[in-house]
Fold:
Amino acid sequence: MQVLFTAEQLKKRVLELGKQISQDYATTNPVLVCLLKGSVVFLADLMRAIPVPHTVEFLRVSSYGSKTVSSGRVEITDFDADLTGRHVLVIEDIVDTGSTLGYIREYLLGQKPASLRVCALLDKPTARVSGVAIDYFGFTAPDVFVVGYGMDWDERFRHLPYVGIPESQDSA
Ligand code: 5GP
Ligand code: MG
Structure:
């Protein structure tokens, strides 16, 4: 496993993002909508870096199956939160082609939120096919498959405290 972003780097950057978000949403009680499962570690750290009032919701989305290439298919299951008139901040682990985010944006906009922004830990701009805006992001990532800090390879590696590049499924 090659380390791409250390736990210390992630911690520092998440604190910075939390500070920025707290300033921008100081009085609006935003709702952070966390995309499961990959964003859960990021959310847990980020919400503790946002001292202003906010709520959280979870949205189960799958687009990758067990493969490491984007299938372009996205499914949303069991989302029953009422976002009408709320200031929504989508929390995403990594934006690759952007198709997942594009689909989710349309879905959430259908709920008539007061505003909708996106916060992604990692941005892989070279793989982008869908022109979605990322309002807050932690780091730019190279166009390689990464794991750790919530992100998996076939459900493995989510527990790693850093973001890394697995060498192969066997040796990683
Ligand atoms: P997109 O629709 O932007 O191509 O893919 C977005 C989703 O695919 C992300 O939410 C993430 O769950 C997954 N994904 C994209 N790139 C990576 C990666 O490098 N590693 C892992 N573990 N998941 C990724
Ligand atoms: Mg994701």
